Amino acid sequence: MMDIFHITGPVRLSGRITVSGSKNASLPIMAATIMAPGKSVIKNAVRLSDVTVLGRLLSQLGAKLNRNENDDLHIDSTVIDNPIGEYDILRKMRAGICILGPLLARCKRAKVSMPGGCAIGDRPVDIHLKGLQQLGAKIHLKAGYIVAQAPDGLKGNDIFLGGPFGSTVLGTANVLMAATLAKGRTTIEAAACEPEIADLANCLNRMGAKISGIGSPRLIIEGVSCLKPVEYSVIPDRIEAGTFMVAAAITAGELRLQNCPLGHMMAVVDKLRNIGVTIESQNNGCIITRTGGLKPADVTTQSYPGFPTDLQAQLMALLSLAEGNSVITEKIFPDRFMHVAELNRMAASLRKEGPSVIISGVKKLMAAPVMASDLRASAALVLAGLAAEGTTIVNRVYHIDRGYKSIENKLNSVGAKIVRKSI
Ligand code: EPU
C-alpha cells in the first residue's frame, strides 16, 4: 500500500495554520535522553514518521517510549542495554546516526550502522567520527557498522568540525552530546549554529550539562558526571513554517501562521519580501500575503543564518512563477535537485548548471503526475500542485510524511483541495 495525493488547483489559500514542533530539533533531543537515565518528556515532538522511526531505534536500545493524546513523547531511558543501531533502521533514516555520541557517553561503546545513500547526496559521516575520536573514542568499521569504544570514558578536547560544505548539523549534535559527559573541557570550533542545535544545547543544559556559546560557532562544554531527565518543549519547525509561507505566496493568498516567531527565519523572510511577499510579525506568529506579481531572485543556500537548503526546493517552485529569470545555487548539498525534472513536467522552465538551477519564470504551471523523491522535493511538488491548473498526482507521499504532520489536512483547512488515496 502506498499513499498518493490528488491536488486540484489553482486555489487561493486563506486562513490560519499552527506550525508544529521542529522535526530536526526533536530527533537529536530524543537521542539526548539516552544520556539521562530516567523518564524524560519531550513536548511538541510531533507524530511524524521520522520521529516514530527514531523512537523504534531507541526502543531497540532498551528505552521505553509512550505517547499521550497531544504531541508529548515520554521516554524512559532507565535501561539502555543494547547499544546497537541496526542497519534496517539507519538505511531508512540517516538521522539515526545521532544516537552514536549519546551511546558512547552512556555505555562507553556503540555499534551503529553506517547510514546508507540518500536522494539528496552522499552524506558522509567522517566529521562525526573525527570529532568523537578527538574525544578519545576508538573507532573502526566492521561489516558496514561503526564500532566505537571508550572503555575509560571520553576526554574533553579542542575540536574543529568544519568540512568542505561548512559546518555539520548532526555532526555537531553528536560531538556536543558526547562532550557533555566527557572529563574536562571541550571547545567545538565551526559548530553548526542552526536553531535546532541551539535547542539541543538548551535542552542539555536543562539536563545539567554546562554548555556556553549556544547559537555561535564556538561551543564550550565543561564535562559533568551525569545528566538528569527533563521535561522540554521543542522549538517550532522553521522549515514547515517556511513551506506554508511559500504556500501563501504561490497561491497569492493570505495565511496567518501561529507558533511561528520570525527570529529563526530572517533569511527566508528577507528573500520572500524581495520576491514580493508581504510578511508581518504578529504576537507569536505572522501574516503572509501576496497581492502583486512575483519578482525573480538570486538565492544561494548556506548554513544558518543563511537561506536553508531545506527550503530550496519549495522556493524553486515559487520562483518558477516569477516574472523573469532567477538563479538558485545549492551550497550544502550540490546534488539536491531531484525536483527539477519533476517541476519541468509541470511546465516549469528550469535548467540545471552544476550546483545551480536557472529558472525562467512561466505564466502558469500545469498539473501532471509527478514523483516525490525526498522530503523537501515532495513539499515543492505539493506547492506547485496548489498553483497548477488541473489535478496533480504526487506519488510516494511517504517521503512527505517523514517531516510534515498531515500536510493535506493543514492545507485543506485553508482552502487547498488535496485528497490522499491509498493505492
Ligand atoms: N558532511 C560531510 N561530512 C560529515 C557530515 C556532513 O562532508 O561528516 C557534509 C554533507 O555531505 C553536507 C554538509 O556537510 O554537504 C552539511 O550536512 P549536515 O551534516 O549539516 O547535514 P545533516 O546533519 O545530515 C541536517 C538535517 C537536514 C538538513 C541538513 C543541512 C536533520 C535530521 N537533518 O542533516 O534536514 O538538510 O542538516 O541543514 O537535522 C530535512 O529535514 O529534510 C533534512 C534533510
What would a concise description of this structure say?
Helices cover 30% and strands 25% of the residues. The chain is built from 14 helices and 24 strands.
Summarize the structure in words.
- This protein is an alpha/beta fold.
- It folds into two domains: 3-19 and 236-422, Enolpyruvate transferase domain (UDP-n-acetylglucosamine1-carboxyvinyl-transferase, Chain, Alpha-beta prism), CATH 3.65.10; 23-233, Enolpyruvate transferase domain (UDP-n-acetylglucosamine1-carboxyvinyl-transferase, Chain), CATH 3.65.10.
- It has 14 helices and 24 strands.
- The strands form six sheets. It has a four-stranded mixed β-sheet.
- Helix 6 (169-180) packs parallel to helix 7 (195-206), helix 8 (238-250) packs parallel to helix 10 and helix 10 packs parallel to helix 12.
- The site of uridine-diphosphate-2(N-acetylglucosaminyl) butyric acid (EPU) has 26 residues, from helix 1, helix 5, helix 6 and helix 12.
- The site of uridine-diphosphate-2(N-acetylglucosaminyl) butyric acid has 26 residues, from helix 1, helix 5, helix 6 and helix 12.
Tell me the domain tally: 2
Distance between the termini: 6 Å
Largest sheet: 4 strands, mixed
Taken as a percent bin, the fraction of beta residues is 25-35%
Which secondary-structure class do the elements indicate? alpha/beta
Number of strands: 24
State the share of residues found in helices, binned by percent: 25-40%
Contiguous low-pLDDT stretches (5 residues minimum) are none
Give the count of helical stretches.
Answer: 14
CATH class wording of the largest domain: Alpha Beta
- Based on CA atoms alone, the radius of gyration comes out at 21 Å
The CATH superfamily of the largest domain is identified as Enolpyruvate transferase domain
